[in-house]
Structures are given as structure tokens and as C-alpha cells.
Description:
By secondary structure, chain A is mainly alpha-helical.
Amino acid sequence: xxxxxxxxxxxxxxxxxxxxxxxxxxxxxxxxxxxxxxxxxxxxxxxxxxxxxxxxxxxxxxxxxxxxxxxxxxxxxxxxxxxxxxxxxxxxxxxxxxxxxxxxxxxxxxxxxxxxxxxxxxxxxxxxxxxxxxxxxxxxxxxxxxxxxxxxxxxxxxxxxxxxxxxxxxxxxxxxxxxxxxxxxxxxxxxxxxxxxxxxxxxxxxxxxxxxxxxxxxxxxxxxxxxxxxxxxxxxxxxxxxxxxxxxxxxxxxxxx
Amino acid sequence: xxxxxxxxxxxxxxxxxxxxxxxxxxxxxxxxxxxxxxxxxxxxxxxxxxxxxxxxxxxxxxxxxxxxxxxxxxxxxxxxxxxxxxxxxxxxxxxxxxxxxxxxxxxxxxxxxxxxxxxxxxxxxxxxxxxxxxxxxxxxxxxxxxxxxxxxxxxxxxxxxxxxxxxxxxxxxxxxxxxxxxxxxxxxxxxxxxxxxxxxxxxxxxxxxxxxxxxxxxxxxxxxxxxxxxxxxxxxxxxxxxxxxxxxxxxxxxxxxxxxxxxxxxxxxxxxx
Lengths: 257, 273
């Protein structure tokens, strides 16, 4: 509760400055906070304007969140095992890592045309793009996390009667967890970036398509509304991930608070 | 007592046979092959009767830690034989508990779960695991801290957890690699006294590597002095074995204690061969 009070002054100041700037006509192309508030209300509940955006929040939010989570989990389920294999088997790493090294610097935006050609317009392409964007942060962090497990912990586990087969689950994964988890959080944040990119073309719904279309019809208050909901949705999925992992793994001291 | 995860023989009650706790004969260790090979250890002969407390001491590079790691099974001797309770050492195992200088606790497990790790690996029933944990957490004086995680404990407390963790496996041999080297001197003294108390209660065979002459004399039945090493151009080897022969508790200020310290220092710095 106290934390919430501390969080309020900064947004309040931004709102005040914004409002003042609009009233002084320093900002002429941007609507004031009150107009945006009305747009948020209408976008959420659909009681004010009865236009194409009225009451469509949940449709767009679920469309975007579905793509984000789909691409993100696809990335997590492939990048975590691959990262473990790369860290554990030098030969496999020699085989695969150079290729990954070339693929990694290619920005997601550069993948857009190719992905659209292969997967066509629609949800699939957005999910694939999110997968590509989320894949490398998880892979790299898993790889480093597993490689950096202290040899001492492996020796300790050996002398306490841990077989080589059990080592992965008993020691390596728990020890690498903070790093894997950090990679997942970075990836999930990136997924919300990529979903907006992915939804700029060829999908009729999603928060990214809302702000792209609103720009075409000069509905600036809708653009800002969309941005605010993307921020809130990103925050919400991050909290869900943190709490979900916490719940699944108990109160591990290696996880952030 | 149905399924055992790893071959394991409980250490107590100790068999009343003449089998040695640790038996090293002709133990050598070479790293690398051919011309570039370096020889870390050569011809180490050492037998520890069950329940004996032996310290290994010597200058850096003399191979004392390597010898301990060979007994632990982390490294293989390249020549000679290494037996614990008559069985050749092939890999690390719970009958040889290792206490490291940097503790090596599992940071994601609390004190109780760290201590329970070994018994759980041995697939002991839950009730037995919890009674073992209770016993050893109490024995090292950490009863009030059993829910804490390693990072919430001081170095001395972490080392107590590490000791309790290996004792929970009822080890025949306790291998300690400069266990108190990272601790301040007061904590160090307390832990030395507690180690003696634990050793007297459970009587495992102990091999302890140390840099401290005083620690060696204070704790051990016998002190093994090692010399050589890469900087000396000869492989590490045993230069002297000294019987301590003082009754516990030992007075570190007594003349007899200091005579032994002097004799050891002499042997370390001016080896006879």
C-alpha cells in the first residue's frame, strides 16, 4: 500500500505537465489526458461513442496476449532444452553454435518480410515473429546459466551420492534457474515489443493493429489508449510469470522478489 | 531400507576387523602425457586405521589437496592403489564425505534440506530422513536456523551446515580440504573444538588438509608432512609423519604442544630429503 503511494507522484506529474502543455497549445496534435481517459473508458466499456473501437478492449487484448504467450512458450520450450544441450555437449555445440551465432544478430524486423512470405498474413506470422524474438534471450541465458554452474556444487552432489543421470535435475537446473528465469523475463518483455511489430500488417485485431489503424484515421487518443494497455498487459504478464515460477518452485532464494 | 540409489554401506557399527579406514600404497598422479607431463604426486604410502584423525600439511603445490581429492574420488590416481575400508576408490560416494573450504552448499536449499540431501539420495524413508536431519542440525548447533538459506548464514555457520550435511550420510571417512581456512580465527577455534567433539562422538576416519601447523597439532592423532611439488622439481611426496600423542582437550599454550609445533615447522621448511 505504501509502495503504491510512492508510485503515484510521477504519473501525476506527467499528467499535469501533459494537461498544461495541451491547454497552453504547446502540443496541438495530441489530445489532453481527459480526452484519452474518455477514449480508455469507451474502448473498455463501449458506452460513449459507439464507433469501431467502442468496447473492443478484450477482443484486442486477448488476441495480442494469445500471440505473445503462444510465441513465448514456443520459444521457452525449445530454447531451454537447446541451451542445456549446447552447454553440456561440446560436440553438439560445435555443430550448432556457429549457425546460431549468425542468426542471432538478425533483428526481428528483418525477419518480417520473410515470415510473411512463408506464413502469410495473419496470426501465425505474429506468433512466429514473437518466437524468433523470444528465442535468443532464453537460449543465451540458459546456455550461460548451465555453463556457469560451479564445479564445486557438482562435486558436492557427487560425494553426497548423486548419479550422473540425476545431476541435471538435482543440481544443474536448480543452479542455472536464476539465469534461465532472467532470460524468460527479458524474452517476455521483448514479446510485447514484437507483437506490435507483428500486428502492424495483415491482422484485423490485437493492440498493435489498433494503434496502427488509429494512426491511419488520425485517432491519436486511441493510439495513446493502445499504448497504455500494451504497457499494462506487459506488466501483468511479467507479474504472472514471476508469481507462476515462484509458486511452481517454492520460495527459492535465487529468484528476485 | 528397500531401494538404495547408490551402493552404500552404513559406517556404524564399525566392524571390529583390521581393515584400514584409508589405505594408500604407491599412489602417484601425473597430469598430461609424454614430455609435457607433470608429476604432482609420487609413491605416497599412508595407512589410516579406522577412526584415526590425520592431518596433511605442507607448502603450496606439494599435492596434499590432490591426494585428498584422489581419496574423495574426484580424481583418479595414475599409479598405486587407493582403498577405503578395503574397497578400491573409483568415484565419489557418500561413504566418503567431503568438506570444502568454500562450503559448496546448495544455495536453493535451506539448512534442513541441505542436510537432508544425502539421506534423500539414499532413498531413506521420510521419517528416518527427518530424524537424521534433527540429529545433525542439533549436533552442529543450528537448530534455530534450519529454515535459513545459505546466503543468510555466516561463513562459520555455513561450514557447520556442510559438516552436518556429510555426517548425515554416516560416512566412514571424513575428508576436509582446509575447511576452516576462510574463517576468522575465533570462529576457527570454535569449529575446531566442535569438530573434535563430533569426531569423538561418531569416530569417523578423518583426513584433513591444512596450512596451519597449530590446527594440525590441535586436532590430529598424526600429522603427515608433505614436500616437493612443481616449483621444487620433484613430485609431491610424504616427508615426515609425526605422532601427536596428546590427550584431548589440548592446551595450545603448553610446552609439549609448542615442541610439536616447532618440530613440524622444522620438517615443513627444512625437509630431511
